[in-house]
Write a structure and sequence with these properties.
By secondary structure, this protein is largely without helices or strands. It has one helix at 46-55; strands spanning 28-30, 41-43. The chain starts with 27 loop residues before the first strand and ends in an 18-residue tail after the last helix.
């Protein structure tokens, strides 16, 4: 089982996508816990996280399969 240490980033921490200061916005912390919960990556908002994921095609093959017949969650 992987564990992660929770800590608050520096006040000058920059967004991994746009280089803005994360605390000037609505910050998000992301960890890859399939890879031993490495260092966190910070984004200043969901728009930057979404752009990062889309540009790198990170959701290909990782999304859950869903169809209207399956119903909701």
């Amino acid at each position: 089982m992987s564990t992660a240490t929770v800590s608050t980033p520096d006040t000058d921490e920059e967004c991994a996508y746009c280089d803005s200061r994360i605390f000037d916005h609505d910050p998000i912390c992301v960890r890859d816990c399939d890879d031993d919960c490495g260092s966190p990556t910070y984004f200043c908002n969901y728009a930057c996280l979404t752009a990062h994921v889309e540009e790198r095609n990170l959701m290909a093959g990782n999304a859950c399969r869903w169809s209207p017949e399956d119903g909701c969650c």
